[in-house]
Amino acid sequence: SVINKYLVQALKKQNLWNADILNKIKFAGGSIQDIHQIPAEIRARYKEVFEIDARWIIEAAARRGKWIDQSQSLNIFYNGTSGRELSEIYFYAWKLGLKTTYYLRSLGASQVEKATVSASEFGSTHTRTSSAPSAHVAAAPAPAPAPAPVAPAQPSAHVAGFASAPMQSLAEKQAEAEKLAAQLARVAAGDEVGLCESCQG
Q1: Residue among 56, 55, 51, 5 at smallest CA distance from 32
Q2: Which of 20, 37, 139, 153 could, after both became Cys, cross-link 55 (CB 3.0–4.6 A)?
Q3: What span, in angstroms and rounded, lies between the C-alpha atoms of 20 and 38?
Q4: E strand or H helix at 104, and its extent?
Q5: What is the phi/psi pair of residue 149, to 5°?
Q6: Mapping DSSP to helix (H, G, I), strand (E, B) and coil, where does residue 155 land?
Q7: pLDDT tens over the chain, length 201 residues
Q8: What is the DSSP string of 18-86?
Q9: d(Cα 60, Cα 174) in Å, to the nearest integer?
């Protein structure tokens, strides 16, 4: 486990960093989303990776890709069971022009028993539930209203333009490759100055 020192600092400022909150975080596998003693503003700021829509991670990768000459190892984190939604996530990555993705990370139905959490207080921690802590753990003075549904991320104008660019035909790609090969041959023969300053000396 990795301790998020910034979360700890934020909780200390609210006088919420104590053994009770720590055990609830452990029980929830690091998530604070269902611990309603923690203010909503802090819960919104500190999310674990499975609580972030994969489309936002993909869009960030698409924006970075403009400045990456090869590719990047992008993991997809998916906390669900829908094959259709998973397919849509991968098609979204393709539409935004990502060259590749890396691992697909998902959550199993079961997990390792948490030895540092009291079984008498929290019950079994072996089975993963969709709503992390139980009602006992998530109890709050007043129940928080259900969050409004989040619309799927839409690509920015910059990314959308990139995604909608027409694909090159095979003939266009071959012509481009032949043009580049001819240019490299001229450079190698000394007929054309190299493309960078270091090559000119």
Answers
A1: 51
A2: 153
A3: 12
A4: strand 104-106
A5: -60, 140
A6: coil
A7: 688 999 999 999 999 999 999 989 988 888 999 999 999 999 999 999 899 999 999 999 999 988 888 878 899 999 888 889 999 999 999 999 888 888 999 887 666 767 677 666 776 665 665 443 333 333 333 444 554 554 544 544 444 444 444 555 667 767 777 777 777 677 666 665 444 444 444
A8: SHHHHHHHHHTTT--TT-TTS-HHHHHH---GGGS-HHHHHHHHHHHHTT-SS-----EEE-S--HHHH
A9: 31
Tokens 């998902």 -> residue: 106
Token pair belonging to 107: 């959550």
Q: Which amino acid is at 162?
A: F
Joined tokens for residue 171: 């003939």
Helix, strand or coil for residue 110? strand
Distances from the Cα of 80 to the Cαs of 14, 60, 127, 128, in angstroms?
Answer: 33, 21, 15, 12
Q: How many CA atoms lie within 13 A of 174 on its CB side?
A: 3
- Locate tokens 């990047």: which residue? 72
Tokens of 150: 């989040």
Residue 19 token pair = 């053994």
